[in-house]
Amino acid sequence: MNRKLVTAKKLKIGIAAAFMIFGSTSAFAQQQVSLQEAIKQALQNKAEAKKAALQIKKAEYKIAEARAGALPQINITSGLTYNPVIQESLLEFGGERIIAKLGQPWQTTTTAQVQQAIFDQRVFTGLKAAKSTREFYVLNAQLTNEQLIENVATAYYQVFVQEENLETVNQSYANTEKVRNVIKSLVDNGLAKKIDLDRTNVQLTNIGSNKQTLINSVELSKNSLKFYMGIPIETDIVLEEKSIEPKPELLASNVDLNNRSEVKVLQKNRELLVYNKKATEAYLYPTVNLVANYGWGATGAKFPLTNGLQNGVLWSDFSAIGLNINIPIFTGGATKSKIAQAQIDIDDLDLDIENTELQLSLDHKNAITNMENSLINIESMKNNVGLAEKVQKDTQANYQYGLATLTEVLDTENALTQAKQNYANALLDYKQAEIKLIKAKGELNTLQNP
Question: Per mean pLDDT, which range of 9-23, 108-122, 259-273 is the poorest?
C-alpha cells in the first residue's frame, strides 16, 4: 500500500513537472510586441520592403552601366578563313592580259580595337539620369516603408481595441455570473422565482456568444498584424500593454506638401522624364569618337597557324588611328516626333502632380476634421462609461434591497458593456484619425520611435 502511495506521489510530481515544462515552453514561444517592434519587423521582413531595397541596388548597377559609356571600350576580334575557290580577275599590263587569282586559300586576322567617346551628349545625359534613377528608387522605398508603417499601425491598434472589447465582455460575463449564482441560491432557498434564474442564464449565454465572437475577432486581427509584420502566422504574439493617450497638440502644426513622399516621388519621376527628353534631343547633336586598332594577320596557301614565309604564308601586323565624326542631318522628322512625345509625358505627369497635391491637401483637411471629431467623441464616450458604471452600481444596490427588478439589473449591465465598447471603438477611431493626420503631415516615420 505504501509503495502505491509512493508511486502515485511520483506520478503526480512527474505530471506537475511536465505541466511546468510545457507551460515554460509556451511562455517562451510568445512574442511580446510593441508598435515600434512591429514596425521594425515589417520593414525587415515584408517582401515590399525587400523589393524596394533590391530596386535601389539595381539602380547602382544602372549608374555603373551609364558610366561605362564614358569609359574606353576595348574589344578583340579574331578570325580564320579558308577559301576553297578563289576568284580570278583579268589584268592588263603593257598591252598583255593576265589572269590572276586575287587572294590566298588561307587567311587569319586578330585585331584589338579601342574606342573612346570624345563627345556624345547621350552618354552624359544617361549618366545624370542614372543617378536620378537611384534617387527615385530611394524615395520610392521610403514611400513603400511609409505604407507599411501605416498598415502595421492600423492593424496594431485594431488588435488593441478588440482585446479591450474582449476584456470588457469578460468583466460583464463575470458580473452576470455572480448575479446568476446569487439568484440560484435564492431560488434554491425558495426566495426567488425560477424565471429570474432562467432569464439570467439566457443573458449569460448571450454574453458568452459575444465573447466567443470577440475571441475570433482578436485572432483574425492578430493574423492581419502578423501578415503585415512579415512573420509566420503561427507565431504567438502578445501586445505590449499600453494605454491610448490622445494628442490634441497634433492639430496645431502645419503641413508642407512638398515633404510628402508621394509628391517627392512624382517630382523625381518628372526629373527622369526631363532627362529622357534631353536624351532624345541628343540624337540631334554630333558625336565624336576616337578609334584605334592594332592587328596581326597572315595569308597563304597553307594553314597559317603552323606555317611561315618559307612555306608561302606571310605574317604581318597593321595599325590605324582615326577620329569618327557623325553629324545627323535629316532623319525624316522621327527625332522631332520623339521629342514631342517626351514633352507630352512631362505635361501628363505635371497634371498628376497637380492632382496629387490637391488630393493630399484634401486628405490633410479631412484628417484634421476627423481628429477633432474623434477627440470630442472620446471625451463623450468616456463620460458615458462613468455614468453607466454609476447607474449599474446603484441598480445592483437597489436590487439587493428590492427596489429594482432583475430586468433593470441586466439592462444596466448591458448598458455598461455597450458604453465600454463604444469607448474602445472611439479610441480606435481616434488612432486611425491620428495615423491619417501623421501621414498627411509626412511624419509616419516618427511612429518608429517610442
Answer: 9-23
In a domain, 412, yes or no: yes
Give yes or no: residues 298 and 432 share one domain.
no
166 and 34 both lie in a single domain: yes
Of 327, 350, 384, which residue sits at a domain end?
Answer: 327
pLDDT band at 29 (very low <50, low <70, confident <90, very high): low
* Domain closes at, from 277, 302, 327: 327
Q: Average of pLDDT values for 285-312?
A: 90
- Domain with 203 in it: 30-69+120-285+328-448
SS3 string, the chain, reads: CHHHHHHHHHHHHHHHHHHHHHHHHHHHHCEEECHHHHHHHHHHHCHHHHHHHHHHHHHHHHHHHHHHCCCCEEEEEEEEEECCCCCEEEEEECCEEEEEECCCCEEEEEEEEEEEEEECHHHHHHHHHHHHHHHHHHHHHHHHHHHHHHHHHHHHHHHHHHHHHHHHHHHHHHHHHHHHHHHHHHHHCCCCCHHHHHHHHHHHHHHHHHHHHHHHHHHHHHHHHHHHHCCCCCCCEEECCCCCCCCHHHHCCCCCHHHCHHHHHHHHHHHHHHHHHHHHHHHHCCEEEEEEEEEEEEEECCCHHHCCHHHCEEEEEEEEEEEEEECCCCCCCHHHHHHHHHHHHHHHHHHHHHHHHHHHHHHHHHHHHHHHHHHHHHHHHHHHHHHHHHHHHHHHHHHHCCCCCHHHHHHHHHHHHHHHHHHHHHHHHHHHHHHHHHHHCCCHHHHHCC
Kindly state whether residues 257 and 348 are assigned to the same domain.
yes
Question: pLDDT tens across 212-255, in order?
Answer: 999 999 999 999 999 999 999 999 999 987 778 888 888 877 77
Q: Is residue 423 part of a domain?
A: yes
